[in-house]
Design a protein that fits this description.
With 275 residues, the chain is of the alpha/beta class. The protein has helices spanning 16-29, 58-75, 92-102, 120-133, 161-173, 189-193, 196-208, 225-235, 248-254; strands at 4-9, 32-40, 83-90, 108-112, 138-141, 152-156, 179-186, 212-219, 240-244, 271-274. A ten-stranded mixed β-sheet has the order 3-2-1-4-5-10-9-6-7-8, with helices on both faces.
C-alpha cells in the first residue's frame, strides 16, 4: 500500500505539471504527499557544479527558499490529497544529502525529468544519492506526464538482490491483474537464456499474486541495455519500466551516463528504480 509519497523539486514553477501528477498519485492511493523543495546557493558558473558556489548571506537564501516554497504551494492549491511542503537551502553539493538525512522514510520517492529542474547537476546528484542511500523505490516521471495506474509493466531482470527488491516493489505498485513482461537483455541468446530458471521463478511468484506474467529475452550487442529496455517499453505501450539498481557502478552506467538515450535522458518513459 502506498500511503506516504515524497516528491523532490528545485523549481516550483517549472515543476507545476509534475506536482499535479504527484498529487494525482497521492489522491488515487489515499496517501499523504510531502514535497521537498531544494533551493541551491547561486553558482559562479553552472559548469562548475557541484563546486563553485558563491557566498550568499543566509537571510537572502531564506528569501529565495520562501519564494520557491510559495510557487510549490500555488501549484498544489487545488490538490485533493493531504500534502506538506518544506524547503532546504544549502550549497548544491550538500542538498541531496540534506534530503536523504531528513526524510528517509516514504513508500515511494518521485522525481521529475531533468528539464523541469533549474540545475541539471542537482537533479543528477539527487537521483544518485537517493537511489544509493534512501532504500526507497524511486520513480522518475517524464515532464507533463500524469501518473497512470500500472496495468502493464516491464521488469528488467537479471538475478540480484536489487532486482528482487524491484520485483517486490512492482507487486506493491501494480494494479491487480496487471500484465508484466519479465525482460532480460544479453549480447547472445545463450547469455539471455541462462536466466530461464530465474524467469520461471519470477513468473510463478507474479502469477501467485494474480498478475499475467510472460518472459522475454532480447539479444542485442549494439545498444546499451537502458536503450533496449526503454524502446521495448515504448513499443509495448507499457505504463512503466522497473529495474533494480544492481550496484554503484551499474547505477552510474545505466542511470547516470551521458548517453542521450539513457534512462534518465529519455524522459518519455516512467522508470521505477529500486536500489
Amino acid at each position: 500500500m502506498i500511503k506516504d509519497v515524497l516528491a523532490v523539486v528545485d523549481n516550483g514553477e517549472l515543476a507545476a505539471p509534475f506536482l499535479k501528477a504527484a498529487a494525482g498519485l497521492a489522491e488515487d492511493k489515499g496517501a499523504v504527499l510531502e514535497v521537498a523543495v531544494l533551493t541551491p546557493a547561486p553558482m559562479a558558473s553552472p559548469a562548475l557544479a557541484p563546486f563553485g558556489g558563491l557566498y550568499i548571506p543566509d537571510v537572502i537564501l531564506m528569501g529565495d527558499d520562501a519564494a520557491n516554497l510559495a510557487a510549490v504551494k500555488t501549484a498544489l492549491a487545488d490538490a485533493k490529497c493531504e500534502h506538506q511542503v518544506y524547503g532546504f537551502h544549502d550549497d548544491l553539493a550538500w542538498l541531496a544529502g540534506d534530503v536523504n538525512r531528513s526524510r528517509q522514510v516514504a513508500d515511494i520517492i518521485i522525481v521529475a525529468a531533468r528539464e523541469t529542474w533549474n540545475t541539471p547537476a542537482l537533479h543528477r546528484r539527487v537521483l544518485e544519492t537517493l537511489v544509493r542511500s534512501s532504500g526507497t523505490p524511486l520513480l522518475i516521471l517524464p515532464a507533463d506526464h500524469p501518473f497512470k495506474p500500472i496495468r502493464r509493466a516491464i521488469l528488467g531482470w537479471k538475478p540480484s538482490p536489487e532486482a528482487t527488491r524491484a520485483l517486490h516493489a512492482l507487486v506493491t505498485f501494480a494494479e491487480p491483474g496487471a500484465a508484466i513482461d519479465v525482460v532480460t537483455v544479453g549480447s547472445t541468446l545463450d547469455e539471455c537464456q541462462r536466466e530461464r530458471d530465474s524467469h520461471a521463478e519470477v513468473k510463478r511468484h507474479l502469477a501467485r499474486h494474480g498478475f499475467k506474467a510472460e518472459g522475454h529475452w532480447i539479444v542485442n550487442d549494439e545498444k546499451i541495455e537502458a536503450d533496449v529496455l526503454t524502446t521495448y517499453t515504448q513499443e509495448t505501450e507499457a505504463d512503466i519500466l522497473v529495474i533494480g539498481g544492481f550496484s554503484h557502478s551499474r547505477i552510474r552506467e545505466v542511470v547516470f551516463g551521458s548517453v542521450t538515450r539513457d534512462l534518465v535522458a529519455r524522459t518519455d518513459v516512467p522508470v521505477l528504480i529500486v536500489g
